[in-house]
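Risk register update: the risk of archive-format incompatibility is retired. Evidence:
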Amino acid sequence: MADMTKHMADLLIYEGAGFCVRNRQTSAGRVSRLELDPANGLNRLPLRILFSGLDLKQPAYHPGDKRMFEFYSLCWFKGGGKGVFWSEATGEISIAPGCMILICPGQWNWYMVRSGYFHESYLTFTGSWADQMRRAGIIDAGRPIVAPSEPERIELAIALARQMMPESHLRAALIVESLLINAHYEIGGERREHQRNLAALLGWIYENPQRHLRNAEMAKRLNVSVSGLCRLFLSATGKSPVAYGKHVRMQKACRLLLETDQPVKAIAAALGYVDQLYFSKRFNKAMGMSPRAYRKQWGRITGRSIAMISSARPDRS
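Archived output:
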């Protein structure tokens, strides 16, 4: 585990593959600190799902029990009673079954049910994807209530992440990313026409990674200027159009390396790269290792049974 200075009051509450979470009690409240092992390959993924809870019945929390996370926490309240959520950025706001709350790192918060319990599923995550979406305003500490059209997909993401295989983590991360992007579009229950068109374009890019569209071509499809296209992409994905295309191709490359026996040259061609050497350089920059090294390291892991994460759950009070 990463060599970090420990506080005498720190309490280990969760230990997973390549990370642990420790609680530190301070005069202001409880801080859940995240420690990542830099040697663990999963921690190099751009969105790293950490621990989760599936179909839980949680008790009411006391408003005085403030807590702060060093990671993102996405909670879906499936049932139970109505309640209240509070954070530094929002003050008190009402929450009810069916809503989803996204808690950002570095924000004091608490939530409580007025009577009974909360019936929830949740997952926590960290990584550069999340930070980019926060900088782009897709994740907003001042707007923690999100309303995705398919909130139950969070449970699919949890199930995939618990398999502890890189390709499963990638799929889970893409689900979380799409949940947050779709919720960003649906604020107020409305979608503007260009947002719907952009969603269709993002889907097309994902399904056709071998097609490297120029910005002018994409802008024409959306009937906007090139500068308008860039603003839309930044708002929706946290990336420029070109960066988003590269991002999708690298995720597809990871899946092909792990799920098929295709040679690197064939994978490069399938993703629209004529030059294998150029593809390998792009992959190495994105993933921190060559395609062959990635397949060698993770292929051995995905080819055998993986132990599940410990069923122990952190104290979220």
